[in-house]
Design brief:
The structure is a homotetramer of 330-residue chains. In chain A, the strands form two sheets. Chain A has a seven-stranded mixed beta sheet with strand order 3-2-1-4-5-10-11, with helices on both faces. In chain A, strands 7-8-6-9 form a four-stranded parallel beta sheet, sandwiched between helices. The radius of gyration of chain A is 22 Å and the shape is elongated. In chain A, helix 1 packs across helix 10 and helix 7 packs across helix 12. Chain A has twelve helices and eleven strands. With 330 residues, chain A is α/β, with parallel strands linked by helices. The model of chain A has no long low-confidence stretch (mean pLDDT 95). The longest helix of chain A has 22 residues. The first copy, chain A, has two domains: 182 residues, Rossmann fold (3-Layer(aba) Sandwich), CATH 3.40.50; 119 residues, Rossmann fold (3-Layer(aba) Sandwich). Chains in contact: A-B, A-C, B-D, C-D.
């Protein structure tokens, strides 16, 4: 293996830079050249790239975002786009492409397999943690940290005013962030896909109202509801209206939004990114169509198809802990 | 002076606890008793209080929120409520009441002056910094820190995606937070009451669009707009729609919201709260209807009427700095 | 089970309060009373305690330190002390004692087993992570975060001055903190018990000098050495002197020290503490001489003897990652 | 003015990059070229430089350290070195040199005045805040933040163990950091040049011991002493030994050290750096031998001689607040 290419693709996540750094330093040690293409697959279509050197990547382990930029790429859904990517890789005599991103990015990899003969390796990086075959994705721990600190702040006002707060967290269609942040922030209630679905909204609502009413009577504290994005009809403002209309409960809404995506990666994400980056280079030498992951403390490789198709539920231990800590589900 | 009462009132602000601590420790040194009433003026109406001791307040200098809780109080707008407050103060033989809060809280003080003969002292605490006669209010510096860190996070994504972000910050009807945060975060544009009003919205819009279009062409970075709350018709989503409809510019919206209100106060707020708390006790001995403040590094006392009625513009130096750093106003 | 007692013992660790909270809330749900004794075993000797209620513990999930205070206790090394502890537990009709602490604290538990018939359960909490039968101890992740942020700061000066820094981190006699922090901070070298012992000091020294000299020539950056405490003769200043005497290399020393022990626990520690606290209550009902732990994502129970006697090596993946990232060991 | 040069010199301080950014952006707006020389005056001696463009400096407002590196420069104490610097400036047709640094750096400026005819402007940046003619120097507020957060962490352990901690903070020979951090952290005692000198050490010692003994008896909390560096004979370990020998008081020592120098600058420092950077460019056009500063909220220019020679005492308000909060001085 003489030359590899790297892209970061899809939603950015803290630790993407640490992964780039690990890949480049690891390649440097093994005398492999690294080309970084910009803006995900778009950079491969438009032939925008940079030679990645140890000097360039050494200081980026602690930086959020991605020095290679990121983007979604519609062209990858069409044969024409995939072919252009393959052409660019062939033109630059790339032996392997390492894709740092989430499941959309990995589907791009799979599309590319039939048009390009080089090795394709995925490194799972998304704050949503919704990729199977790895306990955590790069960026997830940092997002949980950021969101928890934000709720710690909100908690001050919630307690000072003995008020109900609805805090929307990210997660796309999974509750990994919601459950971790909810437990860590000591949220009085967590509403996510795992404990609440379209059929049980009515039930969840009436439980929630009972819980709020009983706690506000008994204790003089705030009441924080962590709400997964894309769950409640019309989002947090929908829930706010429901609480008011049904039970006369006033509440305030916070949408944490993009602050969860950025910031300096926490040590856990930097270490995970370093380990997976090293493994990705190793995997790129003799395998393709694989995602590297860390399961039960072991670095491992997994068929990319499995990683994207398999469901990844929220830890049972978290559910169980929430069940004990909260009366919502009783 | 044998006994004072303290309330925290209106929106909570980081450093309120540090002010309570300073008042209590200062009183303790001078053998003055301290009663803390809960929930602002409501606690004075409902006679809910606690004796504040050095042991209780020693460890709270670093805590956000307020151990005395806070609330708005509608009853203070009516004679009946004001009389109840006066009765409670008289009943407990309070010599002076120290009110930690913003201008709404100070108007309550003024209403109370005719019904109660004790001394009334205000300590300015609000993240909005919209109170005259003090360079900064308690909580303002911490809110600026929190909002700036949040935008540092958003910047990572903005740059990775070379995307436009509209970030709404607090400030009620003033731009202190917007200008400080905008400059500190290196925002490409700041839209606030001071540089943009109902009559100039059209102009501001076309300037902004020109600026965005020219920068996105030239440089490969994100573009962050800091928007003061209550300024733009329909808020940040209104601006987002305007940018899209008028010029086809896509953007993402973040409303920082309540995270700006909480969190451990920064050293500047802790020190200001300590200095003003000490001065408040000193002022309570021989004056009434005064607010304590810090102007040009000097601790001072000001007629509460002036403090609430006078306008407090954003520093000219900030305007000027923004003018230099941004092409928006050129 | 009607009544349990809790102590926090040995070095404090972020997350101890979260564990107390989980135990108390879990007990409350099951109608079990909780007594918290102060200052570790000393509070059991001196009969100093408090009734722990949900109201008291609800807001402490985010606080560093321990509301039950901690201490070392010499009396527990003598029969007399152990008997006094047993007497106090019997006097208060305690059914089970939950000890939150490290291996010294667990040895106290074992000593107590012959003198008291109640159930004894250990919850592993120490920043050093040197307890077997749990992947991480409570407090470890927070300490790694704090130390990494500190080195991020030092890195700024190290790079600005292109200077060598020796940073001593905690860990007692293990390298968990050193390796995690070293990797996360992108340290140029890590010196710990695992890759350096008394017999290999000479070799480590000459490797280090070669590495420093070659890097400072090639690249214009700082050089950060993470050094485990208790490793190098005369500590970091000993190493500083050695570098100067042997090779004329100037360096600066930072001893991170106690800042690693405190601060608000990170979400990972809060969640771990919550899960282990709940499990401890469950275990206390029908078992004794056990430590609760989390291994490969599963909450589990382990004989306390095994937990204290077994060695807990630093993850092989970390060693391997460091090996790749650094030329020191080549 | 067509071309200016910038150096950062002496100890690095958070906000130096924000100052560089403001200077470069301001120059760009006015069509002035900017050369950045590396390693302070050494880069001017060795002719090491970079052209500074808006693209390069735009994203550095939030970064600690200095992209221009820093260093002390012995050669500037000798005529030969000064002449070499002058030659380099002449060779590159530099119209003005802006020096970002502390008083050592400004003395270099003064030495250069006789050998070079261009304009010389100083921007005060040092965490020590020991430069007159500006209320705060760039970096000071960030250092106070970092040190206060560190003591917040230490406080957790101090309180958990009811133990005495001696925490050494930076400041060279002034107590600005010590007093601000001490007040903000709620330190029980502050020992600095301003309230303690060689003649009064005995007295300070006996006061301190009395205070510790009385507090540890009365309250169950820790006792934190903030100690200015370079004050106590043999430093914090000397004080530790004294407390033990004289009164049998055990204590723990923390030397915060270099962590105070680095990290992302706080908003206050970023804004100050931006304002002073803009003013420096403006001043460089028509004046020389001046330092820019901010006094009572006004940006201003001051003769560099006055700035370096005048003493800058710690705020009287801080002394007075400490006096009230602590019994040490009574």
């Amino acid at each position: 293996m003489k030359r590899i290419a790297i892209i970061t693709s899809g939603g950015d996540a803290p630790g993407m830079n640490a992964a780039i750094r690990a890949i480049v330093l690891s390649c440097h040690e093994q005398h492999i050249e690294c080309l970084g293409f910009y803006h995900g697959y778009n950079g491969l279509i438009n032939d925008e790239f940079i030679f990645l050197t140890p000097e360039l990547v050494s200081p980026i382990i602690q930086r959020g975002g991605t020095i290679l930029k990121s983007a979604r790429c519609k062209e990858m859904h069409q044969d024409e786009g995939v072919k252009q990517v393959a052409n660019t890789l062939t033109k630059h005599q790339i032996d392997a492409l390492i894709v740092i991103g989430g499941d959309g990015s990995f589907r791009g990899m799979m599309a590319l397999q039939s048009d390009w003969s080089g090795n394709l390796i995925g490194v799972p990086a998304t704050i949503d943690n919704d990729i199977a075959c790895t306990d955590k994705t790069i960026g997830f721990a940092s997002a949980v940290n950021t969101a928890t600190q934000a709720i710690d702040n909100i908690r001050d006002t919630a307690n000072a005013f003995e008020r109900v707060f609805i805090v929307e967290v990210m997660g796309r269609r999974s509750g990994h962030i919601a459950f971790n942040v909810g437990l860590a922030a000591g949220a009085e209630a967590i509403l996510s896909f795992e404990n609440c679905n379209l059929n049980s909204l009515e039930q969840a609502k009436s439980h929630l109202i009972t819980q709020i009413q009983s706690q506000l009577l008994e204790q003089h504290t705030g009441f924080v509801i962590v709400l997964a994005e894309n769950l409640w009809p019309k989002g947090p403002h929908g829930l706010q209206q429901t609480l008011k209309d049904t039970a006369g409960i006033e509440s305030a809404v916070c949408v944490l939004g993009y602050i969860q995506r950025g910031g300096s990666p926490c040590p856990e994400d930097r270490i995970l990114a370093t380990e997976l980056g090293i493994e990705a280079v190793s995997a790129a030498k003799n395998s393709t169509g694989m995602m590297v992951g860390k399961v039960n403390g072991q670095i491992s490789r997994h068929c990319i198809i499995r990683a994207t198709e398999q469901n990844k539920p929220v830890d049972q231990a978290l559910h169980s802990a929430y069940h004990h800590m909260s009366k919502l589900n009783n």
